Amino acid sequence: MTAAMNDTADTADTAMTVAIDGPAAAGKGTLSRLIADAYGFHHLDTGLTYRATAKALLDRGLPLDDEAVAETVARQVELAGLDRDILSAHAIGEAASKIAVMPAVRRALVEAQRAFAVRKPGTVLDGRDIGTVVCPAAPVKLYVTASPQVRARRRYDEIVAKGQAADYETIFADVKTRDERDMGRADSPLKPAADAHLLDTSEMSIEAAFQAARAFIDAALK
Ligand code: DC
Question: What is this structure's pTM?
Fold first, then answer.
């Protein structure tokens, strides 16, 4: 089992998809993992697919601005091999955000994400465009957000907790730049689906967000 996938038996007749979107460091990864564990669903952090593509380009010394090259690399990404620890580096996130503006890269990765989404007994996919583009028919859509200040503080605390040096102002500037790129791109910009439930975790504990999500999922499963 990898950090990105939660393997359980394929038993149910129909698959249930929970689509979770939101900006970086809003808490959607933690929430997704809690939901996947509670319901025995498979989990895919779709950000890792963009990160894996970016890392493969960086490792091979390939350009980050050649769409055809990036698409070829995107089509080689194996969902089973995604490792959060290896892919979490800041430089990889930055590069991922750049190649994520390319329509051909998005098409390649969305195909793989859609194939994952139908796995039984159900799936949780988190990212930026799950409820709007990847799984627009998902029965449960959540948009998890928090203020840029709170998200930057969380990133800062995570880095410091690992014993690494961090500068809050730099992280805050990065969060804002990443938001602008993710929300401002022409293809599949980050935005809540019209039928998404909004969860603002600025002043909400992850446990409270999880309980709110459970209520939406339980209602959809009935
Ligand atoms: O969630 P993350 O930081 O791991 O995502 C890295 C980048 O990948 C993010 O800046 C935008 C992109 N991304 C995307 O465009 N669509 C997704 N569904 C997930 C991530």
Answer: 0.91
